[in-house]
Every structure is written in structure tokens, then in C-alpha cells.
Known about the structure:
This protein has 12 helices and 8 strands. The chain is mostly helical. The strands form 3 sheets. It has a 3-stranded mixed β-sheet, with helices on one face. It is globular, with a radius of gyration of 21 Å. The N and C termini lie far apart (42 Å).
Amino acid sequence: MNNSILPLSLVVFVLVVCLFLTGCYTVKQGVTYLGYLSKAIPLEKSDDEDFIRLVAEIRTFAMEELGLTNSKNYTSFVRIDRNYLASVVSASAKDSFRRYEWNYPVVGRMPYKGFFNIKDAQKERAKLEKKDLDVWIRGVDAFSSLGWFKDPLFSYMREYSPSRLADLIIHELVHSTVFIKGQVKFNEELAQFIGSEGALLFMEKRYGLDSDEYNEMLKSEQNSNNYVAFIQELIAELETLYSGDSDREEKLIRKEQIINDAKLRFNNEYENLFSNENYRGFNQLPINNAYLELFRLYHTDDNFYNDLYDRTGRNLPVFIAAAKTITKKSSKGTPREQLESSLALLTSGVQINNTALDK
């Protein structure tokens, strides 16, 4: 599995930070990102008409049909000499899934730190490992600036399949539509769910339910779901270990045994789980808590979002309309509780934010 292609989000590079902070990290990353933006050209001036047309269709679908916030995001293009945007560092305790977090102005505490230079990410990893933490570095292909800038497309995205590009763009547009400070897990779960479902709907509209393109995406989604389910089983086994009475050293020894056993089981079950070879690399990954914690962050281990989606009759615009009513401070409870409450009202035809939706 090529971790650099995960549609993971980074939301910490906001230019306004530089106005309040003079630290080397903030200035260096901000200047680098601004350098990319300064090289952006209007998308219509790129030399790939098929790519231009596809992006325009995805944007129109996401904003006009799904109801994501209208913006100029993904209307510009930057040439870059690699196949990912940034290297992102995450960390976790070795004997639990207690994630390490960094504190940022504007966006608050986040469980990852991004670098445009891989050597800087490796230096950060070394510092965290000295704190006896599990650390993971991954490549990300996009992030949302939450409306502070006009987020561009990058040249490596021209090689993406239509389904992958749709998932990426819709995922990131969710972040610029709904972002609850201090609720990183909710933000990522929501974007992951809407990005995936939105891409399916886009592929259905563009190619049709009986098309090879749509069915190929369904196979890819099933492979991805099977991989996530396998990882979640491994996480559950480790959570049982970490909550037990064994001392730390015993837990760490048993942890390695459980991970190695999972790799053997993964190899033995591969043909039953996957229809392609994309996940073979799992056995070679140095799996640790930081890697596994990413799946706890981005993927819900219950059916909460899918169950709510079913209640709407699988109407994604209604689902998104409900999500847009969520606020950080509300007497209606957590973001999940607010989403459930808003959906109940919307599917009953009750007006919210002066918008009436039919049953």
C-alpha cells in the first residue's frame, strides 16, 4: 500500500498565523506554501483539456448539486516535481492510542504537523522518538486552507482516476464548508464520509451505474473498506491489551507479537479480502500506534454516519445541509448530536437557517 496516496487532510498552514507567530516552523512552511501559490496559473491555461473538464464537472457537482460552499478552490494549477504535497508527522504513545497533539493559532490543537521538506519531517520524527513515542510520516496530496486562500490543484493530480480526484476535491471542500475548531476527529470523519459518498454519486452521474468506471470504483471502495476493517480488528485487539493489567514492558512485547501475527493473518487472507495487489505492502510496513491511530482518527468504528445517511433516504445534499448547521458551542450537544438533531428536523420539512427542504 502506497501511503502517500491516502486522501488525508492537513489544515494547519494558514497565512494569518504568520501575523501572530514568528517561529521558524510557521514562517518556513508559510513562505513555502505562498511560493506554491505564487506559481499558480488559472486551470484553463494548463495543457490538459480532459483534466480541465473533469475538475470543472466535479466542482459544479460538489457546489451546485451537493451544496458545498461555493468558492474559487481548485480553479488554479501548480506544477510540482513530486507526487505528493507535504510530509506529515503524527505520533502516539507506545503503550496506548493516546495521540500527540500540536497547538496552532486559528485551528487549535491538531494531531499532525506538516512539512514541505521531508528532511524537516524526519528531524521532527527524531525529536518525538526521543520522547519515547511511536511516530509515523506520511505523504498527503492535498489540504484545505479553510477559506483563507484559493486552494490550487497540483500537477501530479492529472494522473488520478476520476473517482480519486472527485473524492479528493469533495473531501477538501467539506473542510472549507464545515470545520469545528477542537473537533478534529469529527471533522475528518465527516469529510471522509462525504468525500467517499459524493465521489460515488459523481461517478454514477458521469458514467452511469452499469459503466466499467463506476463498477471499478465500487471494487476499489470494497477493497478499501476491507483494509480499514482489518486494521480496526487489529486496533481492537491492541486496545484490549493496553487496557489490561500487564506492566508496560509486557504490553510492548505482546504488542509486537500481535502486530506480527496480524501481518501473517493478512498475508494468508489476502486473496479473500482484495481483488487487486494494492495492499500487498502491508506486511512490509513498520506498523506502530501512530500509524494505527490515523485510522482511529479518520474512520469511525461504528455506523453512525451511514445510519444517519440512510435516514435521509441517502440524500447527500440534505445530509450536508444538516452538517452546515453545526457550531462549536451549542446547547444541542456534540457535533454528532447536532448533526443528528438537524437531520431529524430537515427530513421533517422544518426550516433551518431559512432553508426548507421537502421530505
